[in-house]
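Input record, target 12 of the design panel.
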């Protein structure tokens, strides 16, 4: 009889596809992941990876979306819409399709240009003129 890999007391439960799991329940999965010896699932990061996989046993994590451009390859990065930079760059207006968590330092608008402090040239010029006026005021 095989027991749970974490608690070693209870028989493991069944995966959604009917195969025998490695853990007796979600609580042991979470505790096993907290030990630091296991890699988290690439999709949910809540449960440890199943044997020989980057994903846990949940069907939502195994059903990774396909690229919106080529519609053949699986998306590699969580939250991405494309399988590669080539597919992304071949998509017209791709910058309008992504949501960024960066804000312009001047107008506080959300924008998709990673690594930039301002969303447009006017905001950058306005910030520089405000900075120059503050400097002259201090003198």
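The sequence produced for target 12 reads:
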């Amino acid at each position: 009889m095989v027991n749970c890999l974490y608690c070693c007391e209870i028989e493991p439960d069944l995966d959604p596809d009917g195969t025998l799991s490695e853990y007796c329940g979600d609580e042991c999965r979470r505790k096993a992941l907290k030990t630091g010896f296991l890699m988290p699932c690439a999709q949910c990061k809540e449960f440890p990876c199943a044997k020989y996989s980057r994903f846990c046993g949940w069907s939502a994590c195994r059903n990774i979306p396909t690229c919106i451009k080529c519609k053949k390859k699986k998306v590699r990065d969580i939250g991405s819409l494309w399988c590669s930079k080539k597919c992304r760059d071949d998509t017209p207006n791709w910058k309008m399709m992504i949501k960024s968590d960066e804000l312009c330092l001047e107008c506080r608008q959300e924008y998709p240009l990673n690594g930039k402090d301002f969303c447009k040239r006017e905001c950058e010029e306005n910030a520089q003129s405000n900075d120059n006026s503050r400097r002259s005021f201090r003198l």
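Residues 6 and 31 are 8 Å apart (CA to CA).
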